[in-house]
Fold these 2 entries.
Entry 1:
Amino acid sequence: MHKAYLAIGSNLGDRHWHLAEAVRRLHAPSRLRVVTVSSVYESAAVGDAAQPEFLNAVLQVATAGSPHELLARCLQVEAELGRVRRERWGPRTIDLDVLLYDGLVL
């Protein structure tokens, strides 16, 4: 299994629910397991300051998949939870970013 870290954030709708549901959906496939979840922090949005504040956390996951498979799974969960990409740094129901995957630079 590979060790990876994901950033997770939400600033639209029920932010706590979006975070919890994303963790639940990520954990569902057998090739990915959420190992730990950090505390949740609130922060101002980057870019357009007129949008709501974000709730953010970091997840440690174990995965049998490749970095590309992990990214594809993150994008799938974002789509399932209504993520729409209209503008850079715009508001979003959920945001999942791969921060680290083992020691790989990609």
Note: The mean pLDDT is 91.
Entry 2:
Amino acid sequence: MKHSLLLGMLLAVATSSNAQDNHGYGAGDGDFKSLSEEIAKLKKHNDMFNVYFNYAASGQVAQDANKDWGTKFANKQLRIEIKGNLTDKLYYRFRHRLNKANGAQSEDNFAKATDIMMVGYKFNDKLKVEAGKMCQIWGGFEFDENPMVIYQYSDMVDNMDNFMLGAMITYAPNENHEFNFQITDVRNDKFADIYGTATNTINASKAPLTYIFNWNGNLFDNLVQTRWGGGLQSEADGYNNWLLMLGTKLNLSKFQVFFDYMMANEALDRLNYTPLSANGKTATPVKDAKYNSFVLKAEYQPVPHWNIFAQGMYETAKSDLPNNELKSIGYYAGVEYLPFEKQDLRFFLVYIGRSQDNKNTNITKDTNRVSLGLMYRIKAF
């Protein structure tokens, strides 16, 4: 009776209160022991209902572009995720950010805080379909990683809108290859809410959709992994944007390194971070914008429970307008300590540096930050 009451309380807390699959170093979802199992000493787990919390916070010492230093504590992530297999074929997933606005967007009527609300049906081991709000499948290992363990995103990924309403079909001919085709909305908000008065001269697309093809592969007995994707966005009438992301990873037992190349050719500027980008604030948005990003990250586990990592980024953003070019360099390095084999709890120390060269203003901005904190992906049920 006491155990039943306790389980009821845990269910109530979980359903009244988000996190991406853990692709990085540390415990995977299947290795976790839930709090309910620990407390109630359950021996049998129901895979229909799984609840996770992602939490990350740190103390920071940072230098801004004006060379001023400051110190603060900051929360980075607070997400809840509920997912499960209702049958051997039907499954679902819900992920929501608890520290983001909950107002419904004007196009899809979802809150920006809701990353994922989807259902899937598995016909067999090779074929499945999914529908609902989901993450677009652009590719690249930085894009694919759990946001909690990203210490600094590249400019391109940081400026993307990638949680959209749509549908996807997946074909996996064997355990080493997965091919995905996805169609989603091109935006969460209506055209006028993003481009403002530019809608007086540019017409919204009659079919504002994104089409993406993606290949996830494991080669040479999982030694080389791929996250390759590309697609088209029908941004407006007569304006199509093309994106390509190619991520390749060398996966050794104690050392991993990936290289991502990301490219966007945008007939109508949607990423919106060239020096002259000003969507919604001007009647003449940037056109023919070109974005390129190169990301290299290495990780090394010299002994159990420790992970040493470093990442470098070089990026450009420009259009045909005079002096409308931004060059960006980013780099960070640090160490993680994971004390428990069956829990994804990480204590970390990381240094992050950024430098941006704005040709329109001829100003170079440098920022530096040192963070000491923790990340914890908690399996609550």
Note: Confidence is low (pLDDT under 50) at residues 1-26.
